[in-house]
Amino acid sequence: MSTPEGVTISRTGETGAFGGELLSVNFGPHHPSTHGVLRLIVDLDGEQVRSVKPVIGYLHTGIEKQMEALRWQQGVVVTDRHDYLSPPINNLAYALAVEWLLGIDVPPRAKALRVIMSELTRLSSHLVWMGTSGLELGAMSMLMYCFRERDTILDMNEEISGFRMHTSYIRPGGVMADATPRFLEMLDAFVRAMPGHVDEYEDLLTMNPIWRSRTIGIGKLSADDAKVLGATGPMLRGSGVAWDLRKAIPYSGYENYDFDVATSDLCDCYGRYLVRIKEMREAVKILRQALDKLPDGPVNVDDRKILPPPREELETSMEAVIHHFKLFTEGYSVPAGDVYVAVESGRGENGCYVVSDGTHKPRRVKFRSASFVNLQALERMALNHMIADLIAIIGTADAVLGDVDR
Amino acid sequence: MIADNLVVERGVSAGDAWITVDPANLRSALSALKDDGYRLLVFLTCVDHLLDASRNWPARYELVYELRNMETPEHLRVRAFIDGDPPRVESVHDLFPPANWEERETYDMFGVKFTGHPDLTRILMPDDWVGYPLRRDYPVGGEVVEFSEEHETWQTAPEKA
Are B100 and A230 an interchain contact pair (Cβ–Cβ within 8 Å)? Predict the structure, then answer.
């Protein structure tokens, strides 16, 4: 009997529905449920998964190499593009790392705006996750509801930075521009409306019998396994470990906000779903506090060696012209040394390890991406499940392939 | 506590504590630190110090292991300097499971051979790729651009890399 293309009979086992014969099947890279281009080599016994081997690299764009060729202030634009669902959070990790090396601290208003953008991004990232995962598991209408609110967030991104997705809003030394009054109005309206929308999502999914039967008991990952495999974010918290970098190692003033770390002891796909729902509610809580206590003042450090002078100064001050010229021809140099800064993104720990050799370009920038590490836990979760459940497991692992391959 | 005879140098860089160990002792040092509570390997990477004048580097490649104790939560960066062609170091994938893919990535990008790794193959670049892209002597734009009119004239990666 001839075997269809792409399917090979790999080896013979002991037992199983088909007399122990295992089928090696290529799952992806162009499968709609793989959230990008993830290829899995799955060994199947009938419909049961006996081994999963992820093959990655299809979205590798050499971001770390590009960073070495760009000046410090230019690198921000590239950081947007590795985890393309949470650009401001990536900006924040890089900006904090460069600021640590320079030894500067940004003004309080910049810190609050950074928190606002981070939480908006976390919401939009969870909304994309919920919409697409719902679509994969049979809750078709989720996508419409989730993308409705995500569009509001993208409108806000456009209002504050001029760009809907790759905002490059958070930069070393502060933020791109101050929030406009219209942005604050939009944010206020959004924060008022969002809790009701989260209730809507819960109405659609939490007690939905199809959703529950597709996710409860699927993709078990015990707390010990999650810790050993280095999982972070909702993967770790969905296994009952209350670890959140915003609480454990606070950055950008997160210690001043009152919020809970969402956890679930279910350790399965449904637990990870509950964690994300809870995180959305907590994000709205943080946004409300940040908006109410938004301090006045500048949004950038007052250092002409790092950020350009305002436009009007250029017409009257020779010194401003020199600073402007130096910044846009040579850039600034950062003292030699290395630093690692980790921030909590929608997927877990997104870190940035920066090495400076004292010149105006980084010697090395390494992105520690949550998706790359979390994806290694896939085999542990998927073993002995049906192949249809693999979709749910990949979905709730929420790997962004741009982040995996960088 | 990690034995003092394993530590070559220690210091603090921009607020982060670090130690340098001899590459021959790297595995025993990491194993001792794991017993001390540094159970999570946050990331593992390599830095190429080719023509880096910022200080007198002991060797060209610097391996960096960032460890975290999730109880306290303390960080410790472990460095080891290695040379050689290819540079070799012992794998720690069995001590820290996340190191499995990180070591493959470091091999893929820098050509560092991790002895004892079960499947040390390229992970991000295609399997038949020549050269190690994140080495400093590997030029940006040095790869063949397929479907380009200048295809024939483009240089491939330098043989030395």
Answer: no
